[in-house]
Write a structure and sequence with these properties.
With about 550 residues, this protein is an alpha/beta fold. About 45% of the residues lie in helices and about 15% in strands. It is built from 22 helices and 17 strands. The strands form two sheets. An eight-stranded mixed sheet has the order 1-8-7-3-4-5-6-2. Helix 8 links the parallel strand 5 and strand 6. Helix 13 packs across helix 14. The longest helix has 30 residues. It is globular.
Length: about 550
């Protein structure tokens, strides 16, 4: 008999397969008599587990960076901090001194911090999963427990678990797994974020009824509608097959013929093929930070040149927008000795470092990019500068490009000056957008940082996560101002933040006048399909009504 359970869909994908249950927690027996415990030995066991956990987390961070991108992989930095958290470590040491073995001491020390996070509202409660992840890792290490290899599941499996941690999800192979479902979890959990990045059908927060589904039973996971179907009939299977958005390889236009470029954001070379498979019209944001991470020294000019030409070769008839090195703030690189700052998001990051302490790296990167732009057999290169807040910064960056071009010319190197652009991420760049646009070929709105700065709400502070919503009128008006100013300055205007990949907002963005939308590759087919259904004039009229709204709630009602 077919049974349908509701949860939270986190990916616009569906899959069917046989259930494989995953139970990651380590069960401990009752603790021994405290008089039989050697505190020094148990403390040494815990300290060795700490060291092993750091090694594992570093490896998993590197793997996650390659597979899902630098932003998502940063969660493993937080896990490394939890391993050494003074409150937790102090609790473990105290419990050992009182006669508990290392495993029981670890379990006890994590209990209260996990409970505190679970009692918080919204996305803060999901940090409890990160603590569980670290706890279970330490327990597995100190007990010599085996870890189920989630990267080696049978083809077509549906993974079912009470919850999945970031470490669990980072192992999953989207080419093998048909989907996963969990009893607990939310849309903003790290497992959900990884699922979207990997393109795995997923439904989380299904509830206790999911626990009744045994291994091997057939399960349908519909991440679009947030349901799982136990023992689906043939009709249900046909419906998800029919509902899957087909890949559209060609460029798309609105119903009345206005072409909208739909590109992909990528952070690694591995993501290029995925973007091409999903029908992306080139790359709208190539984050180059991954080239500089997890190494002891920066890449040289030739290594960068090879990477950029490979990206261009993947999209021979399209544009590839490369963002110059954007570090600082939440993305430090250890070998660059960036200073600790009281508020790094308002400090030395992006173009500020490229024009300051990292000027040599900036010139090396520009040399590689200008050389790559000369490849006539590949796609069209465009280069944009991050976190520009003033005309002076842009002028200095453009002067640096001119200097590099002169040097390459004197050396007899083949080069070309690519399209140049600015990321609009600060209120300063919004207010100066027309002057910026007059100097470059394009503007690209980074809605993640723009929302952060317009709403004064840090992306990393979950206490103000409700303010980090681009549907606030202030953010929407900043977007409209940028589009109008860009067009006045004869520049095309794109968007490469998370907002661009939300299919529910495609009509609004077209109505606001965006020329290009760039997003995670998984959402490209849905956004392309939506573009084709839009009539431009009604979309513009609706956008004007939205811009008149004074609250986020009014915006939501109008949309």
């Amino acid at each position: 008999m077919t049974t349908e359970l509701s949860g939270i869909g986190v990916t616009p994908r569906a899959g069917v397969g046989g259930v494989v249950w995953y139970r990651g927690a380590t069960d401990l027996p009752d603790p021994p008599d405290p008089t039989t415990v050697d505190p020094e030995e148990e403390l040494a066991t815990f300290e060795a587990a700490q060291a092993t956990a750091h090694e594992e987390l570093e490896r998993e961070r590197e793997r996650a960076t390659d597979r899902v991108g630098e932003d998502e992989a940063e969660i493993f930095d937080a896990h490394r901090a939890f391993v050494d958290d003074p409150e937790i470590v102090g609790g473990i040491e105290a419990a050992i001194e009182n006669g508990l073995p290392a495993p029981h001491a670890i379990q006890r020390a994590f209990t209260d911090p996990i409970a505190r996070f679970e009692n918080l509202e919204g996305s803060m409660s999901e940090r409890a999963d990160d603590l569980r992840d670290v706890r279970d890792r330490l327990l597995r290490i100190v007990t010599d427990g085996d870890r189920m290899d989630l990267g080696d599941l049978p083809d077509g499996s549906i993974l079912v678990a009470e919850r999945l941690t970031p470490s669990d999800t980072a192992q999953l192979d989207p080419d093998v797994l048909s989907g996963f479902a969990t009893i607990f979890g939310g849309r903003t959990s790290h497992a959900a974020i990884f699922a979207r990045s990997l393109g795995i059908p997923a439904v989380v927060g299904v509830g206790d009824e999911l626990a009744q589904v045994g291994d091997g039973r057939e399960l349908l996971v519909d991440g679009e509608n947030g349901v799982v179907v136990i023992d689906p009939d043939e009709g249900a299977k046909r419906r998800i097959a029919d509902a899957e958005t087909p890949v559209i390889d060609d460029h798309v236009s609105t119903a009345d013929g206005e072409e909208i470029e739909v590109a992909a954001n990528v952070g690694t070379l591995a993501e290029l093929d995925v973007a091409a498979e999903q029908g992306a019209d080139g790359i709208g944001l190539f984050r180059t930070e991954f080239l500089f991470l997890d190494r002891d020294a920066p890449p040289d000019e030739d290594e960068q040149y090879e990477v950029y030409t490979e990206a261009l070769a993947t999209f021979p008839d399209e544009r590839c927008v490369v963002r110059t090195l954007d570090i600082g703030g939440d993305k430090p690189i250890p070998y660059l000795d960036a200073p600790d700052e009281a508020n790094p998001f308002l400090g030395e990051r992006g173009i500020r470092r490229s024009l300051g302490p990292d000027s040599d790296l900036f010139e090396t990167q520009l040399r590689a990019l200008l050389r790559a732009a000369a490849d006539d057999s590949a796609g069209t290169l465009a280069v944009m500068f991050p976190l520009v807040a003033s005309v002076e910064e842009l002028d200095a960056a453009l002067a640096r490009v001119e200097t590099v071009a002169e040097e390459l010319d004197e050396e007899g190197e083949s080069f070309d000056v690519p399209e140049l652009g600015v990321m609009i991420e600060t209120p300063g760049s919004v207010f100066m957008a027309e002057s910026l646009a007059e100097r470059v070929d394009f503007l690209s709105i980074g809605t993640n940082d723009l929302t952060q700065y317009v709403m004064a709400a840090s992306r990393e502070n979950e206490r103000v996560s409700d303010l980090h919503d681009p549907r606030y009128p202030a953010v929407l008006r900043a977007i409209r101002r940028t589009v109008s100013a860009g067009h006045e300055g004869d520049a095309w205007v794109g968007m490469c933040g998370e907002m661009a990949g939300d299919p529910d907002l495609t009509e609004l963005l077209v109505g606001l006048g965006l020329d290009e939308l760039s997003m995670s590759a998984i959402t490209v087919p849905d956004v392309k399909a939506n573009v084709g259904d839009i009539d431009t004039e009604p979309a513009r009229e609706r956008a004007e009504r939205v811009l008149d709204a004074e609250t986020r709630e009014e915006v939501a009602e109008l949309l």
